[in-house]
């Protein structure tokens, strides 16, 4: 038990697919990783097995962070077993697209709950332990949508824009505890969701990006790994846009 508490670990929310999965596979190179998933246990097990094959250590926990009690249970479970985390990475999120003038209130609230409330609940649940250790990092996943907008995503863009303000404010509040808080705002990333884009549409998307390609999950995960490292010890309160120049 004591050995487990001594080993550094990080939490990744929404780690069973897409960027979250990439974060898990990258961060196990340096840390033990606990990652959450909402419903797909099979996907979560596949990530655990992939990490095992790499010689790393990752544990999947079902948790809906938008439920404050679930976030508290997650924190209690993790803190008792592993101690305070080296980092909390808020990656989980959803979309419910539609033009704002006709968007159902439920679609607005679903996205606010999953993308913003969950970040509040999960981060708040772990912060006291991190402050007590006077070390650690919080990483928020924003989006280029927060910078340049996107038709049909008023709810999503609002939550992702909120990450920048939250990163700045929480960085100020936790600096005295030696905790750093930053956000990453990825552009168009080549995840499994991008596989469904028709080839012609994909070509047009790439044409709009100055670097003429989609970003990779590995690039996002690599930036996250850097921001958690000692090399980034003087970076806090920042939102780093990595979008191939799309928002330039």
Automatic annotation (TrEMBL):
Q: Which NCBIfam families match?
A: PRK12826.1-2
The cross-references to SUPFAM superfamilies, in alphabetical order and at most eight, read: NAD(P)-binding Rossmann-fold domains (SSF51735)
Keyword list, A-Z: Oxidoreductase
**Molecular function as annotated in GO:** oxidoreductase activity
Query: What protein name is recorded for this chain?
Result: 3-oxoacyl-ACP reductase
| Superkingdom of the source species | Bacteria
Q: Matching PROSITE patterns, A to Z?
A: ADH_SHORT (PS00061)
Record flagged with keyword Metal-binding: no
Q: Which organism is it from?
A: Chromobacterium phragmitis
A Pfam family this chain is assigned to: adh_short_C2
List, alphabetically, the SMART domains matched: PKS_KR (SM00822)
The family line of this record is: Belongs to the short-chain dehydrogenases/reductases (SDR) family.
- Give the matching InterPro entries: KR_dom (IPR057326), NAD(P)-bd_dom_sf (IPR036291), Sc_DH/Rdtase_CS (IPR020904), SDR (IPR050259), SDR_fam (IPR002347)
Q: Name one GO biological process term.
A: monocarboxylic acid metabolic process
Which Gene3D superfamilies does this chain map to? NAD(P)-binding Rossmann-like Domain
* Coiled coil feature spans: none
Tell me the first and last residues of the signal peptide: none
Domain named Ketoreductase: residues: 8-187
